[in-house]
């Protein structure tokens, strides 16, 4: 989630927290605008085996023997799940607790107190920063069972401190500074895995790179199987640092068409890659699709920092990752325009990263294809521009590193051609 100008809102909305309070004792229904799933009682199939990375040995200089093991785990995390937990991250437990407790205290204030930090200008127009709902673009938009406080925290001279709750201000300032140092420690390690210069990603950010903090509050919901706390999406950032309420789950990540629960541990941080990293790594590292589900009994809280490249800059796959056997899978995009598209697509339940993908079929001279979906039972039929058929014994494969090859193998693992999501596909 990123940045946008002021937008008209069709109808003022009650915060989800207030709505939840009114629903108590009023039956089990939720308003129709929040119903995103048709009595979908599905649960996450299993807990995702999210790797835990110890930054102590990974980042120490000189590198010890254990650094190679941590680097291997980091590579696996970035190429498969797109997220990982970190320990030895340099942020003290009391500071993390202070940020979470300050957030909880903010959302437990009376509505009139929270509305002093509203994201509605003159009560009629939406602005990104402040307290309230996410942007509502139309009367028919399905809403999330969530309230949020959204603040720009970097660059420091662009902070709107009038929107920073007093009880959070000091802790958030210190937390942001330490999270930024953590991000700066991670970037060279990620670059090494791609055989790029250590400072490659850091140099891409620019002097005016921005960071937003999102405090998300998910109140109890009487029908959690019908709603999303946050609808499925991928982050438009470069990387997201997330601190979640360890007492209650809810974050789920989508992989191979299955939603997996993401478990966290007290005083660890979850690192989630964003679309900007997927683009610059040419699809080698993944920006995972994830969502948040709610709970019937308990509230849930999370704090996320979204790190993004300077909005005036353009990004594209790193030059060292592109050659005749590894074509660019993504177009050059301007960050400002990409983030604007992110909000539009998010409100519609769509993925903005699809707009950044190159037409690989066109690059291959393939004019048309039939696709049965993007899950584990997908089947593709390829036809070249002249109408000839690529059959099961003469298939074109786009590998996870973007290389092109023909294969006579009928079943294999690769990134689904039409979606760039992980999948197992079989060309017809």
From TrEMBL:
The keyword Oxidoreductase applies. PROSITE patterns: FE2OG_OXY. One of its GO terms (molecular function) is oxidoreductase activity. Gene3D superfamilies: B-lactam Antibiotic, Isopenicillin N Synthase, Chain (2.60.120.330). Residues 1-27 are annotated as: Disordered. Signal peptide: none annotated. Residues 208-309 form the Fe2OG dioxygenase domain. InterPro entries: DIOX_N, IPNS-like_FE2OG_OXY, IPNS-like_sf, Oxoglu/Fe-dep_dioxygenase_dom, Plant_2OG-oxidoreductases. Keywords: Iron, Metal-binding, Oxidoreductase. Belongs to the iron/ascorbate-dependent oxidoreductase family. This is Fe2OG dioxygenase domain-containing protein. It comes from Panicum miliaceum. The lineage of its organism: Eukaryota, Viridiplantae, Streptophyta, Embryophyta, Tracheophyta.
């Amino acid at each position: 989630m990123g940045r946008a100008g002021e937008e008209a809102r069709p109808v003022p909305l009650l915060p989800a927290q207030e709505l939840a309070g009114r629903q108590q004792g009023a039956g089990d229904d939720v308003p129709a605008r929040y119903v995103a799933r048709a009595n979908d009682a599905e649960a996450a199939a299993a807990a995702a085996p999210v790797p835990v990375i110890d930054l102590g040995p990974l980042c120490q200089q000189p590198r010890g023997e254990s650094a190679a093991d941590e680097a291997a785990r980091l590579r696996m995390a970035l190429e498969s799940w797109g997220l990982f937990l970190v320990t030895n991250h340099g942020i003290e437990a009391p500071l993390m607790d202070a940020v979470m407790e300050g957030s909880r205290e903010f959302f437990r204030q009376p509505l009139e107190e929270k509305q002093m930090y509203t994201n509605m200008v003159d009560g009629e127009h939406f602005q990104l920063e402040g307290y309230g709902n996410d942007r509502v673009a139309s009367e028919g938009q399905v809403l999330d069972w969530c309230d949020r406080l959204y603040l720009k925290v970097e660059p420091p001279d662009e902070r709107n401190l009038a929107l920073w709750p007093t009880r959070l201000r000091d802790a958030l300032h210190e937390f942001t500074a330490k999270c930024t140092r953590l991000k700066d420690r991670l970037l060279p390690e990620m670059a090494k895995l791609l055989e790029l210069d250590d400072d490659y990603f850091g140099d891409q950010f620019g002097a005016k790179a921005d960071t937003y903090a999102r405090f998300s509050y998910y109140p109890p919901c009487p029908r959690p199987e019908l709603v999303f706390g946050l609808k499925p999406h991928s982050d438009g950032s470069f990387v997201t640092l997330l601190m979640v309420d360890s007492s209650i789950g809810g974050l789920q990540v989508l992989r191979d068409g299955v939603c997996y629960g993401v478990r966290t541990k007290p005083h660890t941080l979850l690192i989630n890659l964003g679309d900007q990293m997927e683009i610059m790594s040419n699809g080698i590292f993944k920006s995972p699709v994830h969502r948040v589900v709610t709970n019937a009994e308990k509230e849930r809280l999370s704090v996320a920092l979204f790190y993004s490249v300077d909005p005036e800059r353009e990004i594209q796959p790193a030059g060292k990752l592109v050659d005749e056997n590894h074509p660019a899978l993504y177009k050059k995009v301007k960050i400002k325009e990409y983030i604007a598209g992110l909000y539009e697509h998010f409100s519609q339940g769509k993925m903005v990263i699809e707009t950044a993908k190159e037409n690989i079929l066109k690059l291959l001279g393939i004019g048309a294809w039939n696709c049965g979906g993007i899950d584990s039972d997908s089947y593709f039929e390829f036809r070249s521009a002249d109408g000839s058929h690529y059959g099961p014994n003469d298939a074109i494969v786009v590998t996870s590193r973007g290389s092109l090859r023909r294969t006579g193998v009928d079943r294999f693992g690769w990134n689904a051609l039409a979606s760039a999501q992980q999948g197992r596909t079989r060309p017809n």
